[in-house]
Amino acid sequence: MNIKRVLVVGSGGREYSLIRKLRKTREDLEIICAPGNGGISEIAECVSVSATDVEGMVKLAKEKRIDFCVVTPDDPLALGMVDAMEAAGIPSFGPTAAAARIESSKIFAKELMEKADIPTAKFKFFTNADDAIDFVSIMGFPIVIKADGLAKGKGVVVAKDMEEAYGAINSMLNDKVFGEAGSRIIIEEFLEGVEVSVMSFCDGIDFVPMVSAQDHKRVFDGGLGPNTGGMGAFAPSRHYTDEIANEVNERVFAPALKAMAELGCPFKGVLYAGLILTNKGLYVLEFNARFGDPETQVVLPLLEGDLLEIMVACRNSTLKQQKISFSKDACAVVVMVSAGYPGKPQLGDEISGLENVTDPDAWIIHAGTVKRDGIFYTSGGRVLGVCARGKDLDSTIEKVYDNVRKIGFRGMHFRRDIGRA
Ligand code: AMP
Ligand code: GLY
């Protein structure tokens, strides 16, 4: 495949990192990103088509004579953007809508895990609130309540008592706060342990795991405050030994791919396993059908090889022929967010000091920024990430924070314990 023009769908730090990685090996590649962000506009052409506008995106891909399309966010995958692109003759990276159900329906994922004997928390699903509440009162606390569908990362509640469980069940099943996505819910056993994220490149048959990562979801230091889209991440995880990696490959990725193929929806793209390592062994908390955010920001810099070639091999089912390896270095990112995040963020503030990040092993990842007259302003809750790589995790994290100090905007907030918690 002679690829000259690539379309990347999305607008966050993950897409920024992916384009940055493509640029490293393919300087002459024409990259179009829709809708993109202020920072992405410096490394690719941004076009304002919404990531969920499947028809509009296919039209854009045709107009721009795109050779290969990369779909990374969850919503367009669930809406069948890869199916629509392929039907229009545009080779694309990412799972079909049927394969993306491994993320877009938690019940689908749970049933798949049950069938394929993949370790996961014990569960039951419900459509009726009274039945769900009866079940919770038998099970005890803490207990985990999850909306079946995509809920922008807000569909999981760890309830510590009946009041919280009742609130979550009632708001999902009766008040329909997540609409259809919450019309079925899962209630599952609470697990305790270290959470590790591992992503694999998949071509429908074979998979190649990437280096492990850990992210920090809560907004405040020490894991306090509400959940967010991710306040920082680092790779590799200190807990993910070779022995555990082998176990995950054998008990999670291999059976998941086999089961998906048997269901008639072979998985191509990136399969993300959210794992929890407990003292009873490892379990899968969730699958995502895509690159994770912010894990991608710390995993892709460590990838040795040509990302575009690997993505094409996933699509063409030729992953076996690829040489894929990862550096032994460490990489970390600290996310800087707007005041108010993860609630309604304060936006439109000027960002200063970006030009002072000149360390060759540190860089900025733009997520919620816009650029006007050469100046960057905040335009989203998660504004930017400061990333660094180095020989070990401790010195890398120090390097990240040295550079975080150089940047400022009104109401800026970041966690001070990334990689240490
Ligand atoms: P999920 O989207 O299913 O990964 O859930 C989001 C977060 O909720 C996870 O990263 C965990 O921190 C937490 N969580 C989910 N399921 C469980 C569980 N069974 N036990 C404990 N925590 C969980
Ligand atoms: N970091 C988890 C996700 O991408 O959903």
Structural class: alpha+beta
Shape: globular
Task: Using the 3D structure, state the CATH architecture of the largest domain.
Answer: 2-Layer Sandwich
Average pLDDT figure: 97
The rounded Rg comes to: 21 Å
Helix content: 25-40%
Q: Stretches where pLDDT falls below 50 for ≥5 residues?
A: none
Task: Count up the domains.
Answer: 4
Molecular structure report:
- With 421 residues, the chain is an alpha+beta fold.
- It has 4 domains: 5-96, Rossmann fold (3-Layer(aba) Sandwich), CATH 3.40.50.20; 128-183, 2-Layer Sandwich (Dna Ligase, domain 1), CATH 3.30.1490.20; 194-326, ATP-grasp fold, B domain (D-amino Acid Aminotransferase, Chain A, domain 1, 2-Layer Sandwich); 330-404, Alpha-Beta Complex (Glycinamide Ribonucleotide Synthetase, Chain A, domain 4).
- The protein has helices spanning 13-25, 54-63, 74-78, 81-87, 97-104, 106-116, 129-139, 162-174, 242-262, 295-299, 307-316, 393-404, and strands at 5-10, 30-35, 45-46, 68-71, 92-93, 123-126, 143-147, 156-159, 185-189, 194-203, 207-209, 214-220, 224-235, 268-278, 281-288, 303-304, 325-326, 330-337, 362-366, 369-372, 375-378, 382-390.
- Strands 3-2-1-4-5 form a 5-stranded parallel β-sheet, with helices on both faces.
- Helix 5 (97-104) crosses helix 6, helix 6 (106-116) crosses helix 9 and helix 7 packs antiparallel against helix 8.
- Bound molecules: adenosine monophosphate and glycine (GLY).
Compile the SSE list and pairings.
Blueprint: E1 5-10, H1 13-25, E2 30-35, E3 45-46, H2 54-63, E4 68-71, H3 74-78, H4 81-87, E5 92-93, H5 97-104, H6 106-116, E6 123-126, H7 129-139, E7 143-147, E8 156-159, H8 162-174, E9 185-189, E10 194-203, E11 207-209, E12 214-220, E13 224-235, H9 242-262, E14 268-278, E15 281-288, H10 295-299, E16 303-304, H11 307-316, E17 325-326, E18 330-337, E19 362-366, E20 369-372, E21 375-378, E22 382-390, H12 393-404
Parallel strand pairs: 1-2, 1-4, 2-3, 4-5
Antiparallel strand pairs: 6-9, 7-8, 7-9, 10-11, 10-14, 12-13, 13-18, 14-15, 16-17, 18-22, 19-22, 20-21
Helix pairs in contact: 5-6, 6-9, 7-8
The structure holds adenosine monophosphate and glycine.
